[in-house]
Design a protein that fits this description.
Helices cover 32% and strands 32% of the residues. It has 101 residues and is of the alpha+beta class. Strands 2-3-1-4 form a four-stranded antiparallel β-sheet. It is globular.
Length: 101
């Protein structure tokens, strides 16, 4: 696998009131789905506020990014839209620099 990362997604996800814990559980479990995606080189789900979550994932190329965009994590979020306070804000990004082990 090419570990030279060129593209990414940064996604902001807001929980519906009272759904913070359930959304956190969903995102924690989604790492299994990310691990199954060969083209998803790195994937992080983090929380910055009780109801504000972020996903950062990175890819070697646009093809892998698009495969991820049409994958099971997005399906899981769509299937659990009742946990969301609003539609996720998903921003495509270009990777300028990275540090990896």
């Amino acid at each position: 696998m090419d570990d030279h990362l060129t593209v990414a997604f940064v996604a902001r996800i807001e929980a519906a009131p009272g759904s913070e814990s359930d959304l956190a559980d969903l995102l924690e479990g989604a790492v299994e789905l990310a691990n199954a995606e060969a083209g998803t080189v790195v994937w992080f789900a983090v929380r910055t506020e009780p109801g504000t979550f972020w996903i950062f994932d990175a890819f070697a190329n646009e093809e892998d990014r698009q495969t991820h965009a049409n994958g099971q994590i997005v399906e899981a979020l769509n299937a659990n839209s009742h946990l969301l306070g609003s539609a996720p804000e998903i921003m495509p990004a270009e990777i300028l620099a990275s540090k990896m082990p």
